[in-house]
Predict the 3D structure of the following.
Amino acid sequence: MIFSSIPFLYYFLPVVLLLYFLVPKRLKNLVLLLSSLFFYGWGEPKYVVIMVISIVVGFVLGHLIEVFRGKGLSKVFLILSVISAICMLGYFKYMDFFITNINAVTGLSLPLLKITLPIGISFYLFQILSYTVDVYRGTVPAQKNIIHFGAYVSCFPQLIAGPIVRYSDIAEQLSSRTHTFEKTAYGIRRFIMGLSKKVLLANALGELCDIFRASDDKSVLFYWLYAISFTLHIYFDFSGYSDMAIGLGKIFGFDFIENFNHPYISKSITEFWRRWHISLGSWFRDYVYIPLGGNRVSKGRWFLNILTVWMLTGFWHGASWNFIVWGLLYAAFLVLEKLFLGKYLKNSKVWCHIYVMFIVCFGFVIFNATNLGEALQYFGAMFGAGSVPFVSTEFTYYLGSFGFILLLSIAGSTPLPMILTKKISGIKNGMGERILNIAEPIISVILLLLVTAYLVDGSFNPFLYFRF
């Protein structure tokens, strides 16, 4: 089940909200836990067992870490938590990758396991890991109520694709959170906005990308159109989901962190990764980069730490070499910016943006390639290699067909909508606020109707981050 579906919007969510607000305060987390397990088990019921085991193991180990804090056993239980998470990810997500590479190196023919990846496992295991590490550090006390802990781990609003919510950020909210009309109204608006970004923009852009990949009439300009379209597609797909998660969190009384902050206006790759998938970047910073020594070590070790973190970041996204290369690409430019490139970027007002978007587009071509060979072939074709024509009939046709969506997406990926909203709200004598108060619910209803029409029509509706 995904948020952008009729069963979720008009069956699951209304029933869950009705139950949630009907039950007394002490039962709200139980409703959230049970509904989250149902949500998770909708597609693959057998993997609910994996989640329940993860919850129990994380809960027990967190308690043992606290009981033996200051003693050697505390560290042993932390190591067990790390090993259990790595083993689960290794088996379900990476085992076939390792087998494939062992076969390639040794010439063996070991059979692939062909295991279906449990949805959201990369996210909820990271959340459990951050919890046990924080308990070990003494940052937070261990949770004594397994229902509260289970609700934190399985929380369906952000289960599939984040943001990665740390226990320390919502520990108090698990036991005591407020529900207000204003908070709920904001959550509904934020959810509908994210849903619209996903269905009306990301889906259309994804459809254009699929059209390109199936085309026999590719050209240089069509390759570039694909690269730009996918770059916009993944942003609206992922940031739209984050908006929906944050909005739903507000409705249930939680304050989840922001996960995107207009990354495509960045002036450097360093800034880009402060604005893109913020929760993942901060997780690797606090639980991998800083424990490795961060930048408080020799320059050589510092750069090694950066390479390690970004190789792991790439590998976290998927069990394929193109994801690792994608991560290392960013590591290389981050190192270059720290060595000398950063000071030149500060002196540029236009070229720095072009540089960032060029790297980001190339990076997402690698990211979405089926293998490294395909990525290299795409790069060559983008610059005319392989006798690829400069322009094609299909490029001209689809540029005209999707031109408005592309322009709307480019504008929507910038702070322009937010700037316009602020300008309207700043109209004198409170007129702007009154206009927004009337317009926002009307626009939200119209967007919801449009989204529903698209979904009822059975339009193209994949979700990219299911595979992570």
